[in-house]
Amino acid sequence: MPPSSTVEAPLRASATAARPSDSAAETPASYTLPDLVCFAHLHWDFVWQRPQHLLSRFAQHGRVFYVEDAFYHNDDLIEPHVEIKDRNNGVKVVVVHLPQRLRHDENAADQAQFETLSHYFNEQGVTNYIFWYYTPMALGKSRQFTPKLTVYDCMDELAAFKFAPPELRNREQELFGKADLVFTGGHTLYESKREQHPDAHPFPSSIDKAHFGLARGPLAEPADQAGIAHPRIGFFGVVDERLDIELLRELSQQHPEWQFVIIGPVVKIDPAILPRTPNVHYLGGKDYKELPSYLKGWEVATLLFADNESTKFISPTKTPEYLAAGNPVVSTPIRDVVRPYGDLNLVQIADNAVDFGKAISKALTQREDADWRQRTDDYLATISWDQTWQQMVDLMQTRLAAKKVDAATTTHDSQPRMATKVSEVTLPPIAAS
Description:
Elements: E1 6-7, E2 33-39, H1 50-58, E3 64-67, E4 71-72, E5 81-86, E6 92-98, H2 106-123, E7 129-133, H3 139-142, E8 149-154, H4 168-178, E9 181-184, H5 187-193, E10 200-202, H6 209-212, H7 223-226, E11 232-236, H8 245-254, E12 259-263, E13 280-284, H9 291-295, E14 300-303, H10 318-324, E15 329-331, H11 335-342, E16 348-349, H12 353-363, H13 370-380, H14 385-408
Parallel strand pairs: 2-3, 2-7, 3-6, 4-6, 7-8, 8-9, 9-10, 11-12, 11-14, 12-13, 14-15, 15-16
Antiparallel strand pairs: 1-2, 5-6
């Protein structure tokens, strides 16, 4: 007999350092929700951020399936099949493998993924489920399903990112039509999306205080940072088109007395365009659990974001993470950093290299400011990923309850909510060599 698809369970212990820990002393409320199937454009193992924080919390209570983009093989010998990666926090990462000949046939690839996912979910007894989207592009492989509830957690304005698919905006409009709830990754993004969906709610970046608070205690210095001189001015995050490369270049040239430590993978941009002055150090990507040890060794943390279309709606998770670690912060004028952190005088804001340098000079003395430390901690006490997650759960339960009431007064058939028969996938013929 397959496991129940509606789970009401106690917390499941996690064996990883990246488990939810921002309110370990609290007892999370019990809740009942269907299985949660998430469609994402981000690899689960890439960078620990919003999807991981939220879905690992859902997985403490019930089953979570995290569906990544398909993996295309370099040959046509492979048949469509599913790969499952069990993660220690309870999430099942689902990857559909496809042959090379489907790479440029979107309709056939979407159909193959739908069939493969249908077969897997039926095997797992997934008949009562919620769909949770991070990318509208996943509609191609999922629109034939009939979830009990559809949530669009819009964490970024993906259409403004480099290499965004041209059809993304149309797909998003389709997703707005399907979604019961829309969550946004910040207030600026909410102001845009609330005009497009009647049930949108802002959920800006939050914080795992216990994890990043480790930086305030004794931690060993990472080997690749230990030899870098002080003072250290740091940044962590994905190094892509959102990074203000010219600002970093000017700062490093104008202030050779400071060491700039850049942590994160370089994607979508040519690494050759990054500044290579002797006082800029690129340490590459790091595991989430390692970040506090790096933050502890910095004097100032920065948000070196450019002013462009890709940063217009961002709400950087690293803002409260830097502060929870005890680091003074200097940022470019990203709207969701200015509001509230700049307005509350918790983070300094500067929009050019000269002013940014002055702000860093001030920040180098900010650790001695007891008033700043107290005001920062008072604000951080009002936010957490646990609170964000629970507020989302409350909204989802309310919408599900309303649907049950509607269903009780509506005549409908008893068709299964997920296909029970999977036909063979019709693949394009192998091209003649």
